[in-house]
Amino acid sequence: xKKLFLIHTALFLLLLTSCATNRMTIDARSVILETTSAKVxxxxxxxxxxxxxxxxxxxxxxFFRDYxxxxxxxxxxxxxxxxxxxxxxxxxxxxxxxxxxAVRTEDLEIEYFGWIKLNEELHVGDKISKGTFLGTLYGGxxxxxxxxxxxxxxxxxxxxxxxxx
Length: 165
What we know:
Blueprint: H1 2-21, H2 28-31, E1 32-35, E2 52-55, E3 62-65, E4 68-70, E5 75-79, E6 84-90, E7 99-105, E8 108-114, E9 116-118, E10 127-128, E11 133-137, E12 147-153, E13 156-158
Antiparallel strand pairs: 1-5, 2-3, 4-12, 5-11, 6-7, 6-10, 7-8, 8-12, 9-11, 12-13
């Protein structure tokens, strides 16, 4: 009886703290299904393009980046970091940032975009689980492109770095 009480108390405290912080932590392992090489160490995969005001290295002009990106040399196949519903799929034939797919769960939405080949079995409105294969970065191998991630909370763009650790 005492053991059961302790288990229920621990579960209650866990639920209470997760609701109070209303935060979810996602790391590189949460979005990567396959790396470009077996030599890639997950713990060393870090965001290379940071959210916020930045300067274009070619033009020198300042702009606001509303996403983060993981480096081209690390990720080949990626998955959803959330249980949720496919809220949007965009395919772009040329220019822009390539294709995109967005997954929404309650007030949080994560959009994955870049030069990616999307999982053709997914459609807007599909319910998916965390870990569902979403796509493959073009090129694969060591020449794959960056995986860009934009997050919205209650339809407002937020800094993904607070969740992506």
